[in-house]
From TrEMBL:
Provenance organism: Algoriphagus chordae
Biased amino acid composition, Basic and acidic residues: 35-53
Recorded superkingdom: Bacteria
InterPro entries, alphabetized: DUF2911
Biased composition (Low complexity): 22-34
Protein name (database record): DUF2911 family protein
Region (Disordered) location: 22-53
Length: 191
């Protein structure tokens, strides 16, 4: 009987000890998650071309854009860093994308609700081609671009300004989505 009581007492002590150490494991897991979250935030902050997310409405319809925002940094952009007549990811790092909550028209052409990567083909003269591609979650931008996944291509006339925009901006404003970088303004009409 004493052996049974000894085994029972040992089991009770072991259970009590295990339950006391359990919160430490939980706290440890929470600390690890917090550290990983902090590390991800620090990595995001240290990106040379920060990730920007903007949400708003165009013609009363929810609209979202996400892009990497590179800076000019004294570089020659058009025709050099961003070559003419070649697909450009329209930003930096992963592919930029737009998310349309409802069907819309872009430059007068219909596009269904959904998420689309955003590419452009800059031209030295004339209209630029703006591309909406169904493969929106591309880690390496134009390196993974596949024309067969294009949902819509439209032509948009760039406007060249006197003022200089250092960091690439995409704004949800009239006439829809306006891209600004260096002396470029590219107003893409959405309705």
């Amino acid at each position: 009987m004493k052996t049974y009581q000894s085994i029972l007492a040992t089991a009770v002590i072991a259970i009590a000890f295990a339950s006391c150490s359990e919160p430490k494991t939980s706290e440890s897991s929470e600390s690890e998650v917090a550290a990983e979250t902090k590390e991800a935030a620090e990595t995001e902050e240290s990106r040379p071309s920060p990730k920007i997310v903007k949400e708003g409405q165009i013609a009363g319809k929810a609209f979202k854009v996400q892009y990497g925002s590179p800076s000019v940094k004294g570089r020659e952009l058009w025709g050099d860093l961003v070559p003419y007549n070649v697909v450009w990811r329209t930003g930096a790092n992963e592919a930029s994308y737009v998310e349309l909550a409802e069907d819309m028209s872009v430059e007068g052409q219909q596009i269904p609700a959904g998420k689309y990567s955003l590419f452009t083909i800059p031209k030295e003269n004339g209209a630029w081609t703006v591309i909406f591609n169904s493969e929106w979650n591309l880690e390496h931008g134009h390196f993974q671009y596949d024309e067969k996944n294009d949902v819509l291509r439209v032509d948009v006339n760039p406007v060249w300004e006197e003022s200089n925009q250092e960091a690439l901006l995409m704004e949800i404003e009239s006439p829809g989505l306006v891209i600004r970088w260096e002396k470029l303004t590219l107003p893409i009409s959405f309705k």
